[in-house]
Write a structure and sequence with these properties.
Blueprint (H helix, E strand, L loop, with lengths): L2 H7 L7 H23 L13 E2 L1 H8 L3 H9 L6 E2 L6 E4 H10 L6
Antiparallel strand pairs: 1-3, 2-3
Length: 109
């Protein structure tokens, strides 16, 4: 074996996996603290218009209506929705659907 290879071998450090995990965790903590010192506390990002949009399954989960009921309302133009240019996909605004539900409430006695 030549001397160059022996010098490279002598620079290898053996570390067990627990030590590696600790080193990585410390590095992440330092990076996070550095980030916070530069940018301050994390805040909820402002809601974008697209955050309010969902598909049929999403609006069914949101309203607790069945998917088939949602499709029925869409077919009868009863629920506010947006059709994609391809004519197949349907999107719903959660806030608009909530207003639609509130507008269709029946007074209780």
């Amino acid at each position: 074996m030549n001397m160059d290879k022996m010098e490279n071998i002598s620079k290898v450090i053996i570390i067990d996996k627990d030590s590696i995990a600790e080193i990585v965790q410390n590095a992440v903590n330092i990076a996070f603290q550095t980030f916070l010192s530069h940018y301050g506390e994390l805040k909820e990002p402002p809601m974008r218009e697209t955050d309010d949009l969902t598909n049929v399954k999403g609006i069914a989960e949101y309203t607790h209506y069945s998917v088939s009921s949602i499709y029925s309302y869409v077919q009868r133009n009863m629920i506010p929705c947006y059709r994609h240019r391809d004519g197949r996909r349907i999107l719903f605004s959660k806030s608009e659907v909530l207003e639609w539900i509130k507008g269709n409430s029946v007074p209780t006695n």
